[in-house]
Specification:
- The protein has 898 residues and is an alpha/beta fold.
- The protein has 4 domains: 2-208, Rossmann fold, CATH 3.40.50; 234-387 and 695-723, 3-Layer(aba) Sandwich (Rossmann fold), CATH 3.40.50; 420-657, Spore Coat Polysaccharide Biosynthesis Protein SpsA, Chain A, CATH 3.90.550.10; 746-896, Sandwich (Jelly Rolls).
- The protein has 33 helices and 35 strands.
- The strands form 6 sheets. The chain has an 8-stranded mixed β-sheet, with helices on both faces. A 7-stranded parallel β-sheet has the order 3-2-1-4-5-6-7, sandwiched between helices.
Length: 898
């Protein structure tokens, strides 16, 4: 009771409930816990314990539809979790298609919210700009707790894949920064933490905490567990569709196991499918199964909890054949559920395994040993001792809310406001110059000087403006330097040499600072200790600066690194940046090559390669004018990059290995990378598998093709199950919804209870009831006409036939007509008209007069449908009602694929 009162006491800053935001990149109920379900589980856990919880779904390219979002929203609302979908920001371009845009959108969201605590996954670097804003004093966010399970670089190493995109390199850079700068970093395993340290990440204080499914009831099957047997006859494969999950290793082991496999053995794997070395993972299993004498089942996608339920109900042995593991979640979950399992001795699997459970020793990731270990476990299934790891894990996560995160590094405040020298180069743009100077005059920071360098203006209007400005400049102590035309780099260097300030701020003459810009730059330099600070910008295209910042968008999102990307494009920031005077004595001045337009990029690259600290301020601080006649748009692409290439060519830098990977991956033949797919080309009988590889792995077309392949290889049961795939369920729903029996399927209570009444009749007694324990659906006939109910979407795609077992279950009931139909989910049926004409198929009315005798109704489709259909059940009085009870039951509904 003491613990409960502690958890439920008001802990928010205003004395109310603690406001927690849990961030997620995706909500998929068909993935293992080490993918995307952890944030949702965490949100539910906090809500269960009295917190005001928002689950923020930062949607990227795969933003959910309105209906999909509404369905998920209702699901989480039932758990007292508010789901918000973040798929845009009013400060950015409409779609969040890059990791930078998603991170910036999260920052903009948090700036407007009032959360007390934020939990964000490390994966994807979502918290990058929020943490950068904290470091540069642009925003004071609530404490940010980052939790990690599979960083981008670890994933590539574990899957033996090279970094083949600049997005992957950017994400890896963002993730490392988040791990190092978060108020608290939590790793899913000590293995993962050691990996981070081996890469030079500064995460020695990172906590280690398992990421089990956090919902209560893990491993408690929705149906009764299978009776204990002396041996096991089914292997349930806990392997995803990634190389690191070990599906190929398992297939190698099963090849060796096949000659001595016990009779009646079944291998069961779960969707979703993917590609392993280019080959469809389901196709890989079916192809390799051509050599196996045992049954193969490919079941619908299920989360980890649903897989545990399956193992318990079927008395199966869970097999976890990982080649690399950063979480050990499957091993820990099996131990928590007390289920027999066999896992490979790799990474976090070994770390999570507990000898007290009396499980067999972990197997080395080698086909022969795995085969021997599987065979031994089948012959003598371990009787595991259940350990309550879940309770400890839940409490540890709950404790993270109360533990005070380490204080952020104290900002370095200068004893006095340093003098800032604004250096501005100008040539023949008097209209823009006046706007730029007006913006400087409006600055809220007092200690500044403007050094205006005229680079040989030869237009009369420009010269007259300089003459008119001279007296005001002298009065303010500002300077105008008139020089012969030597181009931008030379003009800026002259301004730096003439400047007196400790801090130098470059400002282009066609841009305009926001009034608070200099103040923000100075604070960012002091807070971060950076040598150079760049900033976000708002872009505009007109001759005059917009009056309202709402008219501009942030289109350039510099990261500040890594140098590997700095060779490809300017990741550091725009030239309108502040730097310490000492930077020039360390790395020299800007290049003075005539006509060169990328002085900022080359200069920042030189600074970063020299070890200087560059930090972008993730906040727009000025208007950036984009014009077709600007230097950037009129200069030569090759000429702009040549000095950058030369700069990188003269330096050694740690990020070069990412560039090597990128160059190799992008210039290696696809056939070499996707070697498993390529090998299929050389065996004519495997052409069907090759064609499968070209389809999206989980599309209807791919599932149909995979089922056809399974059927052609003598596995009709595998094909039937594939074609019966229904929308994924989880937890108890997944355990109870389906009872598999070869090519047929029985709808269980979880499916039947979705029945809704179609006919509105006034009645003192309920017209529709759903009974547990095989009781079926009860419909009460009515004197005014038919009574019907619909099970929406419960007849899955590609099925052929439906059978209903019906019964009149009262000795005094009158004769009753029963009807069965399939209809489109959107079909509205008028029961006063011909039912057959309004449905896809109708059984007709079958009159049942005898009592307690079961009869069968059947409907069959001429051709399989690719969309789910609704099942309609109906009853009516065959004659006049006699006033006695009318117990009319649909006892069982069976679906068939033949």
């Amino acid at each position: 009771m003491a613990v409960e009162s502690k958890l439920n006491k008001p802990l928010g800053p205003d004395g109310g409930r603690r406001r927690i935001c849990v961030v997620t990149q995706a909500i998929r109920r068909d993935a293992d816990i080490d993918d995307t379900t952890a944030p949702g589980e965490l949100a539910r856990l906090f809500a269960e314990n009295g917190d005001d919880v928002t689950l923020l779904w930062v949607a990227g390219r795969d933003a959910p539809s309105t209906d999909e979002a509404a369905a998920h929203r209702a699901e989480f609302e039932a758990a007292s979790v508010k789901l918000e979908v973040l798929d845009r920001s009013d400060q950015l371009l409409p779609s969040l298609t890059t990791p930078e845009s998603r991170s910036a959108a999260l920052l903009h969201y948090l700036e407007r919210s009032n959360h007390d605590l934020v939990y964000a996954p490390l994966e994807g670097g979502l918290a990058y700009y929020t943490l950068l804003a904290a470091e540069t004093a642009a925003f004071a966010p609530p404490p940010i707790i980052v939790f990690a399970h599979a960083p981008e670089e670890w994933v590539h190493e574990a899957d033996k894949a090279l970094m083949e995109s600049i997005e992957a390199i950017a994400i890896a850079y963002m993730e490392r920064y988040c791990a190092e700068m978060a108020d608290r970093t939590i790793c899913a395993s000590a293995t993962l933490r050691r990996w981070m340290l081996s890469k030079g990440w500064k995460v020695r204080k990172a906590a280690v905490m398992p990421m089990l499914p956090l919902s209560a009831g893990i491993g408690r099957a929705g149906a009764q567990p299978a009776p204990r047997r002396e041996n096991a006859r089914e292997l349930a494969v806990f392997s995803g569709a990634r190389f690191r999950d070990g599906l190929t290793l398992l297939c190698d082991a099963l090849d060796l196991l096949a000659p001595s496999a016990p009779a009646g053995l079944t291998v069961t794997a779960f969707a979703p499918f993917g590609k392993i070395m280019g080959e469809h993972s389901g196709g890989l299993l079916v192809r390799r199964a051509e050599k196996w004498p045992f049954k193969l089942k490919l079941l619908p996608a299920a989360d980890l909890n649903a897989k545990l339920d399956y193992v318990e109900r079927h008395g199966a042995l869970a097999v976890i054949p990982s080649l690399a593991a950063s979480t050990g979640a499957a091993v820990a979950a099996c131990i928590a559920a007390g289920l027999p399992f066999l896992a490979t001795n790799v990474g976090a699997n070994a770390e999570t395994w507990d000898a007290e459970t009396r499980q067999p020793q972990l197997a080395e990731p080698e086909a022969g040993q795995l085969a021997r270990s599987v065979l031994a476990a089948l012959d003598e299934p371990p009787r595991p001792r259940r350990i309550d790891m879940l309770g400890r894990c839940r409490q540890a996560w709950l404790d993270t809310r109360d533990a005070s995160p380490p204080a952020r590094k104290k900002r370095r405040q200068a004893p006095t406001s340093p003098l800032v020298s604004i250096v501005m180069a100008h040539r023949n743009r008097p209209l823009f110059l006046k706007q730029a100077i007006a913006a400087i005059e409006a600055q809220t920071y007092d200690r500044l000087e403007l050094v205006l360098v005229d680079d040989g203006s030869d237009q009369d209007e420009a010269r007259r403006l300089l003459d008119a400005l001279a007296p005001t400049f002298r009065q303010r102590g500002w300077r105008i330097l008139r020089r012969p035309h030597k181009h931008l780099g030379a003009a800026r260097n002259a301004g730096v040499r003439a400047a007196r300030g400790e801090l130098i701020l470059f400002v282009d003459d066609d841009n305009a600072l926001f009034p608070e810009a200099v103040d923000h730059f100075v604070r960012a330099m002091a807070a971060s200790g950076a040598d150079i600070c760049t900033a976000f910008q708002l872009i505009f295209y007109e001759d005059f600066v917009p009056a309202d910042r709402a008219d501009g968008l942030i289109q350039y999102l510099p990261l500040g690194g890594p140098d590997a990307l700095g060779l490809i494009h300017n990741v550091y920031g725009d030239a309108n940046a502040m730097m310490r005077r000492g930077v020039f004595s360390q790395i020299g001045f800007l290049t003075e090559e005539p006509g060169y337009a990328m002085h900022d990029w080359e200069f920042f690259a030189r600074a970063s390669l020299a070890g200087l600290k560059i930090r972008p301020i993730p906040k727009p601080l000025y208007w950036y004018r984009s014009k077709p006649d600007g230097m950037f748009r009129t200069s030569n692409w090759y000429d702009n990059r040549r000095p950058v290439i030369e700069t990188f060519g003269s330096h050694r830098f740690d990020d070069a290995r990412s560039l090597y990977q990128l160059a190799i991956a992008q210039n290696t033949a696809r056939s070499e990378i996707d070697s498993a797919r390529e090998n299929l080309r050389y065996i004519p009988a495997y052409r069907k598998y090759l064609e499968l590889c070209d389809l999206e792995p989980n599309s209807d077309a791919a599932v149909e093709r995979l089922a056809a392949i399974a059927s052609s290889t003598g596995r009709p049961d595998t094909a039937a199950i594939l074609l019966e795939r229904a929308p994924a369920k989880t937890g108890e729903d997944a355990a109870e919804e389906v009872e598999w029996a070869g090519g047929s399927r029985s709808l269980a209570y979880q499916a039947l209870k979705s029945a809704r009444l179609l006919t509105s009749r006034v009645s003192d007694l309920p017209l529709l009831l759903v009974a547990r324990d095989g009781g079926g659906i009860f419909l009460r006939p009515h004197a005014e006409g038919s009574v019907a109910a619909s099970l929406d979407h419960q007849f899955p795609p590609f099925f052929r036939r439906l059978e209903a077992t019906v019964e009149v279950a009262h000795a005094d009931a009158p004769a009753i007509d029963f009807g069965l139909a399939l209809a489109r989910p959107d079909q509205i049926i008028d029961w006063q008209r011909d039912t057959a004409a309004q449905t896809i198929v109708f059984s007709g009315w079958t009159t049942v007069r005898d009592k307690f005798a079961r009869h069968t109704l059947t409907v069959a489709l001429r051709a399989r449908r690719k969309m789910p259909l609704s099942i309609v059940v109906a009853v009516r009085f065959a004659g006049m009602p006699n006033g006695f009870p009318t117990n009319a039951f649909f006892r069982k509904l069976m679906l068939f694929s033949d």
